[in-house]
Design a protein that fits this description.
Blueprint lengths: L2 E6 L10 H19 L3 E8 L4 H9 L4 H18 L6 E4 L3 H16 L3 E11 L4 E2 L5 E4 L8 E2 L15 E5 L7 E10 L5 H9 L6 H10 L8 E2 L1 E3 L13 E3 L1 H20 L4 H4 L4 E8 L3 H14 L7 E5 L2 E3 L2 E2 L10 H7 L2 H11 L7 E3 L1 H21 L2 H4 L14 H6 L2 H9 L3 H22 L1 H4 L6 H22 L4 H10 L33 H28 L4 H5 L8 H6 L2 E11 L7 E8 L2 E7 L7 H4 L3 E5 L5 E3 L2 E3 L2 E2 L1 E5 L2 E4 L11 E2 L1
Parallel strand pairs: 1-2, 1-13, 2-3, 13-14, 15-17
Antiparallel strand pairs: 4-5, 4-9, 6-7, 6-8, 9-10, 11-12, 15-16, 18-19, 18-21, 18-27, 19-20, 21-24, 22-23, 25-26
Helix pairs in contact: 2-3, 4-7, 5-9, 10-20, 11-12, 11-16, 12-16, 12-18, 15-16, 16-18, 18-19
The chain binds one RNA strand through α2, α6, β10, α7 and α9.
RNA sequence: CGCGGGGUGGAGCAGCCCGGUAGCUCGCGAGGCUCAUAACCUCGAGGCCGCAGGUUCAAAUCCUGUCCCCGCAACCA
C-alpha cells in the first residue's frame, strides 16, 4: 500500500472559485479518489492562500480586517468545492500558527545554509496609501513606445521594464503619483542549489518531460537569479523574526501552507506530520497550473531540500481552461463561477466532461458547450445509466441470479481492463479511462439489444433467462460505475444503493467478483439529461454578475470614494413617498447675504422664490462660505418648514447642504435652467 | 530569432514516444428495435492527418524548413 499526500495549489483568498480553477481541483480529486479505490492511503490537503498586498488592499477598500476577508473567502471556497464533490481530507489556511511554525523552521535552515543575503531594492512607494507598490498596482506610460495606461512591468507593445522606469506612474490604489524609495529586501541565493535543481528536475520523472525540458532550456541553462522573498511593512503576512519590519513574501509561505495544513490535519487526527513530510516512503504529489511551475519546481524543492523535508515525488502540471476555444471572458459570460454553475447544473456533468478531456499533459482544456451536452448525454445517460435503466426494472422482482450466468466473456473482458484503467488514472489520463469504460458500455448495450429482455419477459418459460440477462447487464453496469467512481462519486453512491451495496466498500478489485443473489432496489433516475437551456441560463447569469461587478469596480476605482460619510451618519429609517412629499423643497435664489455680527456660525440670507416672494433664512454656513460669493446663486431650500424664532430674527426655512461641518459644507445647487420657485420632486 | 502546446472527415478529440491498410463521440443519411431519460442497435456518406522537402520497402507517426492558432512570459497571487 502506497502512502500518498496530494495537494492542489492553494487558491488565493482574493476571488471566488471559477470553472478554470476547477480543472485543477477536479483533476486532483479524481486522482486522489482513484488512489483510494486502488487501496492506497491517500490524503488530500489544501488551504487558502491568504497573504500579500492584494488581500491587504482589498480588505482596506472594503473597510474590514484582512482576517475577516479571508475567513469569508475560505468559507465560500469550501462551499464551492464541496458542491463540486471535491473532498479534501483537510482544508486549512496559510494564515495559521502551524504554517508560521514551518516558515520559521525553513527560514532558519536557509540562514544556516548561508543562502540568505540582503540587497537594496528601489521600488515605487505610494505616500498616501503608505505602502510599496507591487507592479500590478502601478500604471503609467510605456518608456519604450509611449502608450499610456500600461502596467508597471510590461506594455502592450511587448516591452518589459521596471516600474521605476515608467513615465508618469500613477498608483492604482490612491491615484497619486508614487515616489521611488529604497528598501532592504532579503534574497535567497538559489544559484547555490543549481546542481541539485538540475538533477531533481531532469531525473526520476518528477516532472512531465515537456516541463523538465522547459526548465532546462529556460532557467537552468543560466545562473539562477536571487529570489526576493521579503516585503517591507505594511504587508499582510508573517513578519520575519530576525528582520523586524520585513515580511515573508506571499510566495514564500504559500507552499509552506501545504506542510502547515498537514500539521493541522495531523493534530486533528492523531497523525504524525513527520510520517508524511520527513519520510522517504511517503509520496508527496503536487497538482499545479503551468503558470506557477517556476515556484513549485525550483524554489519549492530548493526550500524542502535545504530544510530536509521529503521532496515531491511528482509535480503534476496542467494547462488552462478555455471556453469555446477562447480564454474565459467576463463580457461574453464565459467567466463562470463554481457557485453559478452549481445553481444551474449537476456537478457530475462537469466532472465527467473534464475527465473525458484530461490526458495528463500540459495542454489547455477546452470547455465547449455544444460538446459537453452531447458528451454527457451520450456517454453518461445514453450509454452508462441507460444500461441500468433498461434492465433494473426487469430484475426488481427477482433480484440477481444466484449464480453468475454464462455471458460470452463480457464480464471477464470488462474486469480485465482493471490494470489498464488503474494505469490511466495513475498518469492522469482520465480521457483514456472514459474511453475504455464507454467501450464496455457499447458491448453491454449491444448485448441487451441482442438478448431482448423485453421479449423474454412475455414468455413464462424464459424467466430464468430474463433474470440472467439482467444480472449480466447490471453487473457490467456495476463494473463501469466502479471504474468511474473517482470521477462520479455521487453516481457511484446511487448505484450502490440500487444494488443494495455500499459504495465506500468498493475497491478496484471489486470489478473482478460478480454480484449475485442480491436484491435490486427500485430504479429511479440516477442522472438527468443535460439541458442546453440551463447552460444558456448559466451564461446569462454569469454575464449579469460580471457586468454588475465590473460596473461597481469601475465606479469605485474611478472615484475612490471612501466609506467615512456613511459611517459618520448612517442611513435613516426608511420613509414613504408621502413622508417625502410633506417636505416642500424649492429652488431659490440668494439675493442677499450678510454676516450676523453676534453669531459664530450663521449667515443671514434673503432667498427669492420668484415673483416677489422672499424668505429670510439663517443658515449655519459661515465657516464655509463668504456672503459675497453667495449672492446670485441658486440653492435648494425647505420652503414649508415651520418658521423658527431665533435670537437674531425669524428664520423662514432652510437651505440644503451636505458635508461633515466646519469648512466641509457644500450647498446644493440645481443644474442650469432651474428657476426660483421650481419644486424638487 | 523569448518559452511551451496545438493544427487529423462539419464539431470536439484519440492515434504520434515504440513507423506498416486512419479511429472514437457528436452531427448528417438510410434502416431496425421499442425495455430504457426522443434511448439503444445496424449500415452508410464524409478526411490525400496545416504546407513543403527529406529518411525508409513503408510516415499522421521520425528529421528539416515553413505558415497559422492558443497559452505563458521569474521581481505580478
Amino acid at each position: 500500500m502506497r502512502k500518498i499526500l496530494v495537494t492542489s495549489a492553494l487558491p488565493y483568498a482574493n476571488g471566488h472559485i471559477h470553472l478554470g480553477h476547477l480543472v485543477e481541483y477536479l483533476q486532483t480529486d479524481i486522482w486522489a479518489r482513484a488512489q483510494r479505490l486502488r487501496g492506497n492511503r491517500c490524503v488530500y490537503i489544501c488551504a487558502d492562500d491568504t497573504h500579500g498586498t492584494a488581500i491587504m488592499i482589498r480588505a482596506n477598500q472594503e473597510n474590514r480586517t484582512p482576517e475577516a476577508l479571508i475567513a469569508d473567502m475560505s468559507a465560500a471556497h469550501q462551499r464551492d468545492f464541496a458542491g463540486m464533490g471535491i473532498r479534501f481530507d483537510y482544508y486549512g489556511s496559510t494564515n495559521s500558527a502551524e504554517t508560521r511554525l514551518y516558515c520559521e523552521e525553513i527560514w532558519r535552515a536557509l540562514r544556516k545554509a548561508d543562502l540568505i543575503r540582503e540587497k537594496n531594492v528601489s521600488q515605487l512607494y505610494d505616500v498616501k496609501a503608505g505602502t510599496f507598490l507591487a507592479d500590478r498596482f502601478v500604471r503609467g506610460t510605456c518608456p519604450k513606445c509611449g502608450r499610456t495606461d500600461q502596467y508597471g512591468d510590461s506594455c502592450q507593445c511587448g516591452a518589459t521594464y521596471s516600474p521605476t522606469q515608467l513615465v508618469n506612474p500613477v498608483s492604482t490604489i490612491s491615484g497619486t503619483t508614487p515616489e521611488v524609495r529604497d528598501a532592504v529586501h532579503l534574497f535567497v541565493e538559489l544559484e547555490k542549489l543549481h546542481a541539485f535543481l538540475d538533477d531533481w528536475t531532469q531525473n526520476n520523472n518528477h516532472l512531465q518531460p515537456e516541463m523538465a525540458n522547459y526548465l532546462a532550456g529556460h532557467f537552468l541553462n543560466d545562473a539562477l537569479y536571487d529570489w526576493d522573498i521579503s516585503r517591507p511593512a505594511p504587508y499582510f503576512g508573517f513578519e520575519i523574526p530576525d528582520s523586524p519590519g520585513n515580511y515573508w513574501y506571499v510566495w514564500f509561505d504559500a507552499p509552506i501552507g501545504y506542510i502547515g495544513s498537514t500539521l493541522q490535519w495531523c493534530n486533528a487526527n492523531g497523525e504524525n506530520v513527520d510520517d508524511w513530510w520527513r519520510n522517504d516512503s511517503a509520496e508527496i504529489h503536487h497538482y499545479i497550473g503551468k503558470d506557477i511551475t517556476y515556484f513549485h519546481t525550483l524554489f519549492w524543492p530548493a526550500m524542502l531540500k535545504t530544510a530536509n523535508f521529503t521532496l515531491p515525488k511528482k509535480v503534476h502540471i496542467h494547462g488552462f481552461l478555455t471556453v469555446n476555444g477562447e480564454k474565459m471572458s467576463k463580457s461574453t459570460g464565459t467567466f463562470i463561477l463554481a457557485s453559478t454553475y452549481l445553481k444551474h447544473l449537476n456537478p457530475a456533468f462537469l466532472r465527467y466532461y473534464y475527465a473525458s478531456k484530461m490526458t495528463g499533459r500540459v495542454d489547455d482544456l477546452d470547455l465547449s458547450f455544444a460538446d459537453i451536452v452531447s458528451r454527457v448525454n451520450a456517454d453518461l445517460v445514453g450509454n452508462l445509466v441507460n444500461l441500468a435503466s433498461r434492465t433494473a426494472k426487469f430484475a426488481g422482482p427477482t433480484g440477481l441470479s444466484a449464480a453468475y450466468p454464462e455471458d460470452g466473456g463480457l464480464f471477464a473482458n470488462a474486469a480485465a481492463k482493471a490494470d489498464e484503467i488503474a494505469e490511466a488514472y495513475e498518469t492522469n489520463d482520465f480521457a483514456r479511462v472514459t474511453r475504455l469504460v464507454m467501450q464496455i458500455g457499447d458491448t453491454a448495450n449491444k448485448f441487451v439489444e441482442d438478448s431482448a429482455p423485453w421479449n423474454l419477459k412475455k414468455d413464462p418459460e424464459k424467466q430464468q433467462q430474463l433474470q440472467d440477462v439482467c444480472t449480466i447487464a447490471l453487473n457490467i453496469y456495476r463494473q463501469m460505475v466502479i471504474y468511474l467512481s473517482p470521477i462520479l462519486p455521487e453516481l457511484a453512491r446511487a448505484t450502490a444503493e440500487l444494488l443494495d451495496e455500499n459504495a465506500d466498500s468498493w475497491r478496484l478489485e471489486s470489478v473482478k467478483t460478480p454480484l449475485v443473489g442480491t436484491k435490486v432496489n427500485k430504479f429511479s433516475h440516477i442522472l438527468e439529461r443535460m439541458d442546453p437551456v440551463k447552460i444558456d441560463a448559466m451564461i446569462a447569469e454569469s454575464q449579469a454578475i460580471n457586468e454588475a461587478e465590473e460596473k461597481q469596480k469601475g465606479l469605485l476605482a474611478k472615484w475612490n470614494d471612501g466609506p467615512e460619510a456613511l459611517e459618520n451618519e448612517p442611513l435613516a429609517e426608511e420613509c414613504s413617498i408621502d413622508d417625502f412629499t410633506k417636505v416642500d423643497l424649492r429652488v431659490a435664489r440668494i439675493v442677499e447675504a450678510r454676516h450676523v455680527p453676534e453669531a459664530n456660525k450663521l449667515l443671514q440670507l434673503t432667498l427669492s422664490l420668484g415673483g416677489g416672494h422672499t424668505r429670510n433664512v439663517f443658515a449655519g454656513i459661515k465657516s464655509a462660505y463668504k456672503p459675497e460669493d453667495l449672492i446670485g446663486r441658486l440653492v435648494i431650500c425647505v420652503a414649508n418648514l415651520k418658521p423658527r424664532q431665533m435670537k437674531f430674527g425669524l428664520s423662514e426655512g432652510m437651505v440644503c447642504a451636505a458635508g461633515a461641518g466646519g469648512t466641509e459644507i457644500f450647498l446644493l445647487e440645481p443644474d442650469e435652467g432651474a428657476k426660483p420657485g421650481h419644486r424638487v420632486h
